[in-house]
Amino acid sequence: MEIFNAGHLPVIAVERGNVRLLESTGFPLGMFREASFTSSHVQLSVGDLLFLYTDGLSEASGDEGEYGVDRVTDLVGRQARCCAAGVISACIDDLRSFAGAKPGMDDVTLLAIRHAD
Predict the structure, then answer these.
(1) Are 47 and 13 contacting, i.e. CB atoms less than 8 angstroms apart?
(2) Regarding the domain delimited by 2-114, which CATH topology (the fold level of the hierarchy) does it fall under?
(3) What average pLDDT does the segment 16-20 reach?
(4) Which residue among 33, 40, 46, 62 is least crowded, i.e. fewest CB within 10 A of its CB?
(5) Phi/psi zone of residue 15: left (φ > 0), alpha (ψ -120 to 50 degrees), beta?
């Protein structure tokens, strides 16, 4: 799989149980007319997972401060054996627990992709 990440948060890849971040490789899409982007390559094996999310998740606030990319990465790594829907459910449950009754100020969009056999 070839991924172009134009100025967004890192994609979380869980490959054969190892978690890595695929960082942005360029400016946000649409900032510059002549921008060029490089890609990251991922070879997914059966059971591997990609997790994408918006800043509404990583920048959500709670009593402990900001939710953060590290917390998202840790959670996805621990939930990686679940089905894609299970990873998303676990993330939403953890976010609700973290943020408490504080409503989010931004949208939260999550996408989990698992290579199935």
Answers:
(1) no
(2) Phosphatase 2c; domain 1 (3.60.40)
(3) 92
(4) 33
(5) beta
Q: What pLDDT score was predicted for residue 91?
A: 96
pLDDT, position 103: 58
Encoded tokens for 82: 């679940």
Amino acid symbol at 104 = G
The DSSP element (H or E) to which 65 belongs, if any, is: strand 65-66
Q: Tens digit of pLDDT for each residue in 57-116?
A: 999 998 889 999 999 999 999 998 899 999 999 999 999 999 886 656 788 999 999 998
User: CB–CB of 50/113 below 8 Å?
Assistant: yes
> So what's the pLDDT on residue 35?
81
Residue that has been written with the tokens 């490789």 in this structure: 25
**Domain-wise residue ranges, the chain:** 2-114
In the numeric block, the tokens 């054969």 are attached to: 16
Kindly report the pTM of this predicted structure.
Answer: 0.90
The answer for residues whose C-beta is within 8 angstroms of residue 41's C-beta and 6 or more apart is 1, 2, 3
